[in-house]
Design a protein that fits this description.
Blueprint (H helix, E strand, L loop, with lengths): L1 H14 L1 H5 L13 H14 L2 E3 L11 H11 L13 E3 L8 H14 L2 H5 L4 E4 L10 H9 L1 E4 L14 E2 L23 E6 L9 H11 L4 E4 L8 E7 L7 H6 L3 E5 L20 E3 L4 H10 L3 H15 L13 H11 L13
Parallel strand pairs: 1-2, 2-3, 3-4, 4-5, 6-7, 6-8, 8-9, 9-10
Length: about 350
C-alpha cells in the first residue's frame, strides 16, 4: 500500500508540475489547497489518523450503496484502533430508522459508559446517516446534531446539513466506466449540447424544474435517456439538484462537463473541502427557461470549456468507490475531510445528571 501511495503521489505531483514550478499557476487547479499543502497533509493522514468505533446498539446494515461502501471500507482500514486513547475521532454507528428516543438513549449510554463524549460534547465524534438528522429538543440528540460530524448521502434532506461541519458522500455509480488517467480525453465533435437522464421517480422537482425539463425535451439540442450511456456524445451533462446525481462523477470522468440546475446555493456538495467545484462544473438556475440555459452554455468559450472539462477529469478519480480502497479514491478523500475536522475543543470534565 505504501508503494502504491508513493507512486500515485509522484503521478499527481508530475501532473501538477506547472503549479509547483510557478508562484502564480498557469491555470486554475481543481483543488482548494495548493498541491504542496494538500498531498503532504494527505500522506500524513494515511499514516497517523486513528479512529475508534463504538459497538452499535444492535446489529444493522446501512441502506445506500455509498454508506455501505464507506462503512465496509472503514472497518477494514488501517485507520481503526482498539485503543480509544490514541484516537483522533470516534465513530458512532446506529441504524437509519432509530427513533429520537432510541438515539437519545444511545448517546446517553456513551456519555455514561465512556469519558470521550463529555470531553468535547461530541465534537470529536462522527456518524453516518443517509438523510441526516434533524434538530430535536432532546439534549443528547441536539449535541449529536450540533457538534458531531454528520456524513450523509448527497444531496442531503433540506435543513439537515450544517456547512463547514458536515460531509456528504460522493455518489456511487452502479456501473462506472474504467478509470481514466487524470487528463482530459481527446476532444471530439459532440452531437448534443446537453444530456439529461430521465428521472421518472423523482418527486422533488419544483414547478420551475418541471417546466425547464419540458422545454428541453422539445429542443433537439438536448438528449434524454433512462440511463446515461454514451455521455461523450454531449458537451454538457445536466443534473437537477435533488434528482439522480449518482452519475455526476461518471460524467466528469468521461469529459462531459456537469451542469447542476438549482434555484439556491448548494452547501452540501461532495468533497467540498477538497475540490473547487466552480472549476469543474457549471451552476445555473431553472427559472428563466431553456433559452437562458442555452445562452449560458453556448456562452462558455472553447478555452474555458476545455479547462473545466480537463480539471473535471482530473478530479473525477476522487469520486470513484473501489471494493478495495485505493489511494486518492472516494473513501480516502472522505477520510481526508474527517482528518481536516480532527481538531476539537476539549472541555473540562463535568458530571451529567
Amino acid at each position: 500500500m505504501a508503494m502504491v501511495t508513493t507512486s500515485l503521489s509522484l503521478l499527481f505531483l508530475s501532473l501538477l508540475t506547472p503549479f509547483l514550478a510557478h508562484p502564480t499557476p498557469l491555470q486554475p487547479s481543481p483543488y482548494l489547497s495548493p498541491p504542496t499543502v494538500l498531498f503532504p497533509d494527505y500522506h500524513k493522514m494515511t499514516t497517523h489518523f486513528k479512529i475508534y468505533t463504538y459497538d452499535p446498539p444492535k446489529s444493522f446494515h446501512f441502506t445506500t450503496p455509498s454508506e455501505t461502501q464507506f462503512h465496509n471500507s472503514l472497518l477494514n482500514s488501517q485507520f481503526l484502533t482498539r485503543n480509544p486513547n490514541e484516537a483522533h475521532l470516534f465513530f458512532v454507528p446506529f441504524p437509519h430508522d432509530f427513533s429520537t428516543r432510541q438515539l437519545s438513549r444511545f448517546i446517553r449510554d456513551l456519555r455514561q459508559n465512556f469519558p470521550y463524549w463529555n470531553r468535547t460534547l461530541g465534537a470529536d465524534h462522527f456518524f453516518v446517516s443517509r438523510a441526516g438528522i434533524a434538530y430535536a429538543p432532546d439534549r443528547n440528540v441536539l449535541e449529536l446534531k450540533k457538534n458531531a460530524v454528520q456524513i450523509s448521502s448527497f444531496p442531503t434532506t433540506s435543513g439537515n446539513f450544517i456547512p463547514h461541519k458536515d460531509i456528504t458522500l460522493p455518489p456511487l455509480h452502479p456501473n462506472p466506466s474504467p478509470l481514466v488517467l487524470p487528463h482530459a480525453p481527446a476532444n471530439k465533435t459532440t452531437s448534443f449540447l446537453g444530456f439529461m437522464k430521465l428521472d421518472v421517480k423523482s418527486q422533488s422537482q419544483s414547478q420551475s424544474d418541471k417546466s425547464l425539463v419540458q422545454e428541453m425535451e422539445a429542443d433537439p439540442e438536448f438528449a434524454f435517456a433512462s440511463e446515461p450511456l454514451d455521455l461523450g456524445e454531449s458537451r454538457f451533462c445536466l443534473f437537477l439538484y435533488g434528482g439522480d446525481l449518482t452519475w455526476v462523477g461518471e460524467a466528469m470522468r468521461v469529459g462531459c462537463v456537469p451542469v447542476v440546475i438549482t434555484d439556491r446555493p448548494i452547501q452540501d456538495l461532495p468533497l467540498i473541502d477538497v475540490v473547487r467545484w466552480s472549476e469543474i462544473a457549471v451552476f445555473v438556475g431553472p427559472r428563466d427557461g431553456v433559452g437562458e440555459l442555452k445562452r449560458v452554455l453556448s456562452g462558455i468559450g472553447d478555452e474555458r470549456y476545455e479547462r473545466i472539462r480537463g480539471l473535471g477529469v482530473a478530479a473525477a478519480q476522487h469520486f470513484v468507490w473501489k471494493a478495495t480502497p485505493q489511494p486518492y479514491d472516494a473513501f480516502y478523500m472522505v477520510m481526508y475531510q474527517l482528518w481536516l475536522r480532527r481538531h476539537a475543543i476539549r472541555y473540562a470534565r463535568r458530571e451529567w445528571v
